[in-house]
Amino acid sequence: MKKLNALSIGGFDTGAGAGVESDIKAFESVGVHGLGVVTAITAQNTLGIKGTLLIEPDFLKKQIETIFTDFQVSAVKTGMIVSSGQMKVISELIDRLTVVDPVIVAKDGTRLIEDLDSFKKMILPKTYVLTPNAVEAEALAGFKVVSIEDQIRAAKSIHDLFSIPYVIVKGGHIQSDEVVDVLYNGKETMLVRSHRLENRNTHGTGSVFASMLAGMLAKGIKVEEALPAVKSRMEESIKFGLEIGKGIGPVEPLVSLERDSMRFKVLRDMETFADFVESQDHFHVLIPEVQSNLAHSISPEYVEGLEDIATFKGRIIREWGGRVRVGMPPSFGYPTHTARLLLSIVLKERKGDTLINIRYDQKLVRAFKNIGYEVLEVDREKEPKGEEGRTMSWIVEYVSQNHGKLPNVIFDTGIKGKEAMIRFWTESIDEMMHSISLVLKEVRT
């Protein structure tokens, strides 16, 4: 199997939050193989940089030559380049630096470029895309960058000063409700907006942004098309930034791949459950008049909405003669009662990934008690009027406020026009199948 290669030249972060390690993750997240050349080894954690060991220019040269004598490199991204000696080596060995992240100062305030003038003379003339934040743009443009108007002016100024084809001045450091990145290509200005996320775990944001962009450019995607895609991926990476260490945790560049793999597993789980249901002799005794459906989500900590929860399109149907048919296929995003109830539980508890609605019967209620589950009755008459469509979230709110934790089995005896129902949730599809097997055994004995 062949794969495009992208090279990161930068520092090694012992906390793996930024630098070459995160760059390689970012390359892989967009489908490109990541290569790495190290300019410095930092003693670093989520609290900051405690020390730096600089790689001598001769060994930096050996690393780069070793890469290029073997691999066909489709894109080069640079991050931390410390000394003028390192800059000289890079400028002599590499004709074009696809994306340059001008890492002038670390998040904790540590200065990372010893000689900014050498950086301007040797690195910037080789740069195809430059991705400074507002602070870095100030250092390069020579004036304060505190607004979108300043970003636009800085992008144009840096482009003109250093003849860089594409300049992206990022807006993460600008005080506003949204984050606006400004792209200038010498002719046109493009603004790409995103929501500002309240998550302190943002270490490595600039590094990952530049690497994702370089990876997409390696695949032949134009800068104007790649930037919005990178912004979308970065939004997800920041949203699920890692809560590790005692300080500022890193963003998670692989989260989109992780969520995709979880969705695939959910669909496989649903197929397994469908086979299980249709193989059970007495499953029909669980199905209410409105039929049943199973809701199954990706890992609870990654759930954002109904798009992360799958249900059966055609429900679980009781047919003549006690036969049961599962209405395949499973699909994400349908606003079924089971999906909305599971979503409410997950957002409240951050646990549980599987839920089914089954027929109300005191025998079934006792069966759940007998196999060890806590059972709770909810009086639907207490549901506020005019809350139609919010029943599922109301159930969760009502139980949480009046009983504390949510029991796995919640039932009601119905109200006028609404069938009585048992709702059962578990923390895995395996627990669901095992528990249903035990319940069916209980009601048969």
TrEMBL record:
Keywords annotated in UniProt: Kinase, Transferase
NCBIfam families associated with the record: HMP-P_kinase
Domain Pyridoxamine kinase/Phosphomethylpyrimidine kinase: 13-251
InterPro entries: Aldolase_II/adducin_N_sf, HMP/HMP-P_kinase_dom, PM/HMP-P_kinase-1, Ribokinase-like, ThiN
Source species taxonomy: Archaea, Thermoproteota, Thermoprotei, Sulfolobales, Sulfolobaceae
Protein name: Phosphomethylpyrimidine kinase
GO aspect biological process, one term: thiamine biosynthetic process
Single GO MF annotation: phosphomethylpyrimidine kinase activity
UniProt cross-references to Pfam families, sorted A to Z: Phos_pyr_kin, ThiN
Domain Thiamine-phosphate synthase ThiN: 269-435
Record PANTHER family: HYDROXYMETHYLPYRIMIDINE_PHOSPHOMETHYLPYRIMIDINE KINASE THI20-RELATED (PTHR20858:SF17), PHOSPHOMETHYLPYRIMIDINE KINASE (PTHR20858)
Source taxon at top rank: Archaea
Keyword Methyltransferase: no
The keyword Kinase appears for this protein: yes
A single Gene Ontology CC term: cytosol
